[in-house]
Amino acid sequence: ALFLFQRLSFDKEGMIQRARRLIDLYKEVGIGKDRILIKLSSTWEGIQAGKVLEAEYGIHCNMTLLFSFAQAVACAEAGVTLISPFVGRILDWHVANGDKKTYEPSEDPGVKSVTKIYNYYKKFGYKTIVMGASFRNTGEIKALTGCDYLTISPKLLAELSKEHVKLTPTLSVKEAQACDLEKIHLDEKAFRWHHNEDQMAVEKLSDGIRKFAADAIKLERMLKERMFGTENGK
């Protein structure tokens, strides 16, 4: 997955052009677009860029920095390949901003968010893959057993490997199809309203964009130093 568009998070056309250019560069060295996921911020503009890239150019997109149900619904309607809803960062916000500091896995706000998204996607037959990300403990991971994909850190994988307990899926297509969620449609106005109603999601999305952009600047400086620094004799 390539995530280089932080500073283009509100520039739909900019994201489309940058993604197409990257795909062309990879094609020149013999790497096909089917092996690449273009990672975009789940802003309205990012989601619409993903819609165009998928439908018009066959470029697979991974929507990240996803915190609200509105973002998930818009991504499904856009037909993107994969979403990465952040479990741990949602928990972090609630711990920092609420009175409750610990949660049982089934009550973890990040777990509940991904569970709702998974159930919605499966109930209404969306093909977009749900890949839970950003975990803080193994309890969150086990509470989302059955999710399409999970991306897990080496530390938590090591902890899981020491447990000798049989896991049974907590998420399933069958149960999702029996849930009482109703299908909704979000145009831009509805998306912005519903997303704005979720204070956590608004704050975490903007914070994530700022932090990723800052990291990109650090990376650019490091590359410039390596390419043009005195250690290279220049």
TrEMBL record:
This is Transaldolase. It is an enzyme of class 2 (transferase). Catalyzes the rate-limiting step of the non-oxidative phase in the pentose phosphate pathway. Catalyzes the reversible conversion of sedheptulose-7-phosphate and D-glyceraldehyde 3-phosphate into erythrose-4-phosphate and beta-D-fructose 6-phosphate. InterPro entries: Aldolase_TIM, TAL/FSA, Transaldolase_1, Transaldolase_AS. CDD domains: Transaldolase_TalAB (cd00957). It catalyses: D-sedoheptulose 7-phosphate + D-glyceraldehyde 3-phosphate = D-erythrose 4-phosphate + beta-D-fructose 6-phosphate. It holds the Pfam family TAL_FSA. The keyword Transferase applies. Pathway: Carbohydrate degradation; pentose phosphate pathway; D-glyceraldehyde 3-phosphate and beta-D-fructose 6-phosphate from D-ribose 5-phosphate and D-xylulose 5-phosphate (non-oxidative stage): step 2/3. Its EC number is 2.2.1.2. GO terms for cellular component: cytoplasm.
